[in-house]
Amino acid sequence: MDDGRPIFQQIASTLEARIIDGSMPEETQVPSINELAAFHRINPATALKGVTLLVDAGVLYKRRGIGMFVAAGARDRLVSERREAFRDTYVRPLLEQAAALGLDSAQLAEMIRKEADA
């Protein structure tokens, strides 16, 4: 874990990725703060901060005395957010550049199809 972002954000992203890929399904318990801290060799307060991001976003919820669990609808919410981010980061700039080059949507779709097939 060291992609330039704060560790707590990396912890949150790792948990999000596991929810999205299905390895941490909805309504299942997530690793405890102490387990996350020990696994990543970080301070438990840092692990807690990452988990708190997801609790605040409604992705995780706490069952008092039991632990943290993946909220119902969390995967759909995360996929939707990532799709919006993908659109904003990649698709909109792609369309702007295509327009600047005089490419219409059919030409652009053909270019994408060819790259996908390669």
TrEMBL record:
InterPro entries the UniProt entry points to: Tscrpt_reg_HTH_GntR (IPR000524), WH-like_DNA-bd_sf (IPR036388), WH_DNA-bd_sf (IPR036390)
Keyword hit for DNA-binding: yes
SUPFAM superfamilies reported for this sequence: Winged helix' DNA-binding domain (SSF46785)
Database matches in Gene3D superfamilies: Winged helix-like DNA-binding domain superfamily/Winged helix DNA-binding domain (1.10.10.10)
Top-level taxon of origin: Bacteria
Name the UniProt record assigns to this protein: GntR family transcriptional regulator
Domain called HTH gntR-type: residue spans: 5-73
Molecular function as annotated in GO: DNA binding; DNA-binding transcription factor activity
